[in-house]
Specification:
Distance between the termini: 16 Å
Low-confidence stretches: none
Strand content: 25-35%
Number of domains: 1
Structural class: alpha+beta
CATH topology: Peptide Deformylase
CATH class: Alpha Beta
């Protein structure tokens, strides 16, 4: 089981490094991505995870297939860059697997476009709205050492009723 590091862990505050082209497709990177997916799938409420959340300061995030209706599997974003943010912004409820059980409102663009590399090193561009746009912004913040609580208002501690 891969542990998800919790704030104030130092890796969560680092500016993650770009993945070198030569590392894409290599065993080390495959293992990191697999650990990310395992950690994400271990959390019922998780929709995405960034590499710093498993204590790896690399520019990678994974979005769960449960928020990607057209994708049969989780989607990997290597060296992602937000290329476009919509002008319209809304305050959206947000939480984080590394800031467990805290939730708050974060003002985010309602649409976003990301350019990234997939696991094979092929470049792709994906646009999203609503939750997907929010995920792109939240995960990119992680890669820049920013947590949602840095931007959130009305932060509340809402632990689950039946903690294990």
């Amino acid at each position: 089981m891969t542990n998800i590091v919790q704030s104030p862990h130092k890796t969560l505050r680092m500016n993650a490094q770009e993945v070198k082209q030569s590392e894409i497709g290599g065993e080390k990177l495959k293992e990191i991505i697999e650990r990310m997916k395992t950690a994400l799938h271990g959390e019922d409420d998780g929709v995405a995870i960034a590499a710093p959340q498993i204590d790896v300061a690399l520019r990678i995030f994974v979005v769960s297939k449960k928020v990607l209706p057209k994708s049969p599997e989780d989607m990997v974003f290597i060296n992602p860059v937000i290329t476009k943010l919509g002008k319209k912004k809304e305050s959206m409820s947000e939480g984080c697997l590394s800031v467990r059980w805290k939730y708050g409102l974060v003002k985010r663009a309602t649409t976003a476009t990301v350019k990234a590399l997939n696991e094979k090193g092929n470049e792709f561009v994906l646009s999203g709205k609503g939750l997907l746009a929010q995920i792109f912004q939240h995960e990119t913040d992680h890669l820049n050492g920013v947590l949602f609580i840095d931007k959130a208002t009305n932060v509340e501690d809402l632990p689950p009723e039946n903690k294990k």
